[in-house]
Design a protein that fits this description.
Helices cover 4% and strands 47% of the residues. With 984 residues, it is mainly β.
């Protein structure tokens, strides 16, 4: 299982019985590491300790140059208990993930969060979580990103599971982010072997980095790290470190059964080389079936959309309906001619709902107006919910290679290549809502033989609803993602203790999306009788030989009565292809030198200095329908090509004035052209007595505006539910987001204070208080707040009838910003009963403060969903308690773990006015997971694992509008998996 391991070591302390393998000597270092419980060794141990095992009893003796006290604290993630291995696969030394020489073996151990190679990771004060490849193999996760659900410090993720309200990210492809402390995906910097990866989704997709089989470990810094890495490392750093030392062949495969959405993946890794050159190549294929809202009870509910989002829609009568014989129009026994006589307005118009609204066939709901005679007047409510996805179907291939070549004594060239390709399919409701009607909606002419009113009528609604259209149940959006990450570099010794590292990184991602929207010109042509793909209809009208409703030219009916009987080729006029391409690219050059500057009182003052140049580029390309404004739902968009340069200088120093105290200071300067910033940090680690250590750090971190946010371009168009304060209607409206060249970076004050206690052998306890406070936080204007402030202002685009069509929003620097603080408590107790080893563990994160800045008001968001009408998009759901606890058993080649995951309830404030009384709560999420592993064969080279996630098939607690809250729970239900692996 993943164990949050806090290594507290002392030069003078005596090793206690709870020591874990891989503990390194230090002066009071606190390091968190996720690792599997010890079992018998299956591979050589390369560590500053010689470890001898006795099979069966699992006892061992440890001889070290310096005696070390190893301390295992709380487990974060439940996984299969496996063999205990020191970290033998040391990755290439990287400037952003510096390494420390091991004097006994000559190998180096990567240190995330430092550029110093002469300082051990266990001497640093920032808490770091580390999970190894074996830990990942002993869980039911099907991807690297799934690990985040077991980390209490990670508060939800963007991407992946759909959240209709906000924060769900792209539900059209397989993508997930890290989101430490709930400060947003952009506040957690994701690295691959210590280097930046392009954030193609607006964040780095964790599933796109490297095959899980290639991972040596994943290290997460739970502290501000901008002093080392620059922008975006406000909440911390997520660093994926690959295995560059592997030799041989390794394969594995996993099948995960989830009702209605099974998944499987297969992986392989090959390592070859000699004393001069070594290369490791890994490849993975992953397949996930789609999961629809209709497949889960919690999401299969009536989620009403009316007005332009309804189907059946409504019709505007511009004249008195009349039958072909000149008499009254009577439909389903209701007289629409006399209805018009009684209720038309002064302009001679009357809006009526589709005559079949409310029928079982249309799966709609008729809501009569107060003065309605029981038909015609009112609203037609339609639910798009069941046909939209929880997650899309996807197929992905990921290839990774690390190669190192020793070109001279003490000098090495290294290269890294990562290639990622994904195809995904989003199955959604057959047509989008009709948001842009112009001065008048599309007209169904009296000449259309399918028009039962006998006069011209305007149509408002979806072209197709849940009833389908001639057997067409879904609209399928297809995304193709291609990501390339290439690194070349060199490292070596300069003189004495001084070393250098220099590298160049090219990281590029491209997303090509093929979607379908209704082209309002083609839709109108079909209403006029010029529909179908073979009708000679042009952008300026019918072409030669085209005649309404004749030959290849067809009439389209938007009336529900005709949905299933019309010519299927008319889908041409309802689903028009449109393409969007987004390209993001990083080009980075970096150089670092580090070593011992001087000795003060016989103690080294270690120093690292370096510089980085980063060129960023973002390109957006859109097809005509996205750009011309004739799409019913999507757009408008504009082609963009944005660039900027970032220049950085940084330095870090470390000294241990006495054996029990370690002090570290770092600072980084970054220049973006239109603004610059400095991020300093100081930290200290003090071992008071062998059983107690304390630590503290304070820093200033920052997050630069995204390149698009800093432009003056139209950078995106989205849709959101907007309540028009003029009439109280709640409908989907487009939000047009423009950049803001005046944006400044958002900054944060960060500090952490903690202590670790070894009360008795085999037991450990750790506690940390952490605090983040933003200043000038970058917020995106809330569309609802914009229209509330000035309903008829320049930021609200209305049509000729006064109906709000779009709201213009932009980003700005809020007067203050989010402030959050809390306490992390972790504990573990290990005991042995002969050959049986039992471990109890718990990891609790308590949220004390989550102050949300709306731009005009700061409110306490602890224990709430934080989805008020005016809540910023950066606000996350904020449960007060998140906890992972478990028990592990290991006996010979067998291991079993049971875990309990808990998230406390939150107030459901969806679309409420700030300060309104509570109307609902989203209940607590409490689930159990179990895993069993068995190793067999020579040296334990074969392994079989089975497990179950959410054993009792618990549904997520109910949330308003979305059905569930993706940052708190998931709707998958019980997941059963089987995994097999082999090493040769």
């Amino acid at each position: 299982m993943f164990h949050l391991k806090i290594l507290f070591s002392s030069r003078d302390a005596v090793p206690h019985s709870g020591a874990r393998l891989g503990t390194r000597p230090s002066s009071g270092r606190i390091t968190a590491r996720l690792t599997a419980p010890p079992r018998r060794s299956m591979s050589p141990i390369k560590a500053p300790a010689k470890v001898l095992f006795r099979r069966g009893s699992m006892s061992f003796s440890v001889r070290m140059r310096r005696r070390a006290a190893g301390l295992s604290l709380a487990a974060l993630v439940a996984a299969m208990a496996g063999r205990a291995e020191a970290q033998t696969s040391d990755p290439a030394d990287m400037p952003a993930a510096a390494a420390t020489d091991n004097p006994e073996t000559g190998t180096e151990v990567v240190v995330t969060g430092s550029y110093l190679r002469n300082v051990r990771q266990e001497d640093r004060a920032s808490p770091i979580l580390s999970v190894t490849a074996d830990d990942i193999a002993r869980t039911g996760v099907n991807s690297l990103a799934d690990i985040t659900r077991y980390i209490p410090q990670n508060v939800g993720s963007a991407g992946g599971i759909q959240d209709l309200a906000k924060g769900g990210g792209a539900d059209s492809r397989d993508t997930r982010s890290a989101n430490l402390r709930g400060l947003g995906a952009g506040a957690t910097l994701v690295l691959l072997n210590g280097r930046r990866v392009v954030p193609i989704d607006g964040f780095v997709n964790l599933n796109s980095l490297t095959p899980e089989i290639a991972i040596a470990r994943v290290e997460t810094v739970l502290d501000g790290a901008s002093s080392t890495y620059g922008a975006d490392a406000v909440a911390g750093v997520f660093n994926v470190i690959t295995d560059t030392r592997f030799k041989g062949v390794k394969v594995n495969g996993q099948y995960t059964h989830i009702a209605d959405t099974p998944a499987f993946n297969v992986q392989a890794m090959v390592g070859v080389g000699n004393d001069t050159i070594h290369s490791v190549t890994s490849v993975a294929y992953r397949n996930i079936d789609r999961l629809q809202n209709g497949d889960r009870r919690v999401t299969n509910f009536f989620n009403p959309s009316s007005g332009s989002g309804a189907n059946p829609g409504s019709f505007v009568l511009y004249a008195r309906p009349r039958a072909a014989d000149g008499g009254d129009v009577i439909i389903n026994g209701n007289n629409y001619s006399t209805l018009y006589d009684s209720f038309r307005n002064a302009a001679g118009q009357l809006s009526v709902v589709d005559p079949d609204c409310g029928s079982a066939a249309t799966q709609s709901r008729y809501v009569p107006a107060a003065n309605s005679p029981g038909f015609g007047l009112g609203a037609c409510q339609f639910s798009f919910q069941a046909q939209n996805p929880i997650r899309p179907a996807s197929q992905s291939v990921l290839v990774h290679n690390d190669t190192r070549v020793d070109i001279a004594p003490g000098h090495t060239l290294f290269a890294e290549i990562a290639l990622y390709h994904q195809d995904s399919q989003r199955y959604g409701v057959p047509s989008f809502a009709q948001n842009r009607n112009g001065p008048r909606p599309p007209i169904v002419p009296a000449a259309n033989p399918l028009n039962p009113f006998g006069v011209d009528v305007g149509f408002v609604g979806r072209a197709i609803g849940s009833q389908g259209f001639a057997g067409i149940e879904y609209k399928v959006q297809r995304d193709q993602v291609d990501q390339r990450h290439v690194v070349v570099g060199a490292e070596g010794k300069v003189a004495g203790t001084w070393r250098y590292t220099t590298n160049f990184t090219w990281s590029r991602g491209e997303v090509n999306s093929i979607d379908k929207d209704t082209d309002m010109r083609l839709f109108q042509a079909a209403l006029n009788g010029f529909g179908g793909p073979n009708c000679n209809n042009r952008f300026n009208g019918p072409g030669s030989g085209a005649a309404a409703g004749t030959g290849n030219c067809l009439f389209l009916s938007p009336f529900a009565k005709d949905n299933l009987t019309q010519d299927p080729s008319l889908i041409f006029n309802i689903q028009t292809a449109e393409t969007a391409t987004t390209i993001r690219e990083f080009l980075i050059g970096e150089a670092v030198v580090n070593g011992t500057l001087i000795e003060l009182g016989g103690r080294p003052l270690d120093l690292a200095v370096g510089a980085q140049y980063r060129q960023e580029r973002q390109i957006g390309r859109y097809s005509d329908l996205y750009q011309n404004g004739f799409g019913a739902f999507n757009g408008p968009f504009r082609d963009t090509d944005l660039r900027r340069e970032v220049k950085s200088l940084f330095a870090e120093a470390n000294i241990a004035p006495v054996d029990s105290l370690n002090i570290n200071a770092a600072a980084r300067y970054e220049d973006y052209g239109n603004f610059d910033t400095i991020a300093p940090k100081i930290s200290a680690n003090w071992r008071i007595v062998p059983q107690l250590a304390v630590r503290a750090s304070a820093s200033k971190a920052f997050q630069a505006p995204a390149i698009a946010n800093s432009s003056d371009a139209l950078i995106s168009t989205n849709v959101a539910n907007i309540i028009d304060p003029l009439d109280g209607s709640l409908v989907f409206r487009s939000l047009q987001q423009y950049g803001n060249p005046g944006l400044q970076p958002q900054k944060a004050d960060v500090f952490n204070v903690g202590a670790t206690l070894l009360p008795v052998p085999g037991a450990s306890l750790s506690i940390d208080y952490w605090h983040y406070k933003y200043k000038s936080q970058i917020q995106l204007q809330n569309g609802q707040a914009v229209i509330n402030a000035d309903p008829n202002g320049p930021a609200v685009i209305r049509d000729a009838n006064g109906v709000a069509q779009s709201v213009i929003v932009t980003s700005y620097n809020a007067p203050s910003g989010t402030a959050t603080a809390g306490i992390d408590v972790a504990g573990r107790y290990d005991v042995e009963f002969g050959a049986l080893r039992v471990g109890l563990r718990d990891n609790l994160s308590v949220l004390l403060t989550y102050d949300v800045d709306t731009g005009t008001t700061v409110y306490d968001g602890v224990g709430t969903r934080n989805n008020y009408q005016t809540s910023p998009l950066t606000a996350a759901a904020a449960p007060r308690y998140r906890n992972v606890a478990g028990v592990d058993f290991s006996l010979e080649d067998h291991a079993f773990s049971l875990d309990w995951r808990y998230v406390s309830s939150v107030r459901d404030d969806y679309q409420q006015v700030l300060g309104a009384p509570e109307v609902a709560r989203i209940g607590a999420w409490s689930v159990f997971d179990a895993q069993y592993n068995f190793r067999f064969g020579d040296g334990g080279r074969f392994e079989l694992g089975v497990g179950m996630t959410n054993i009792f098939d618990k549904e997520p607690p109910t949330a308003i509008y979305t059905g569930y809250l993706s940052s708190v729970a998931d709707p998958y239900g019980r997941q059963t998996y089987v995994r097999a692996s082999a090493r040769f």
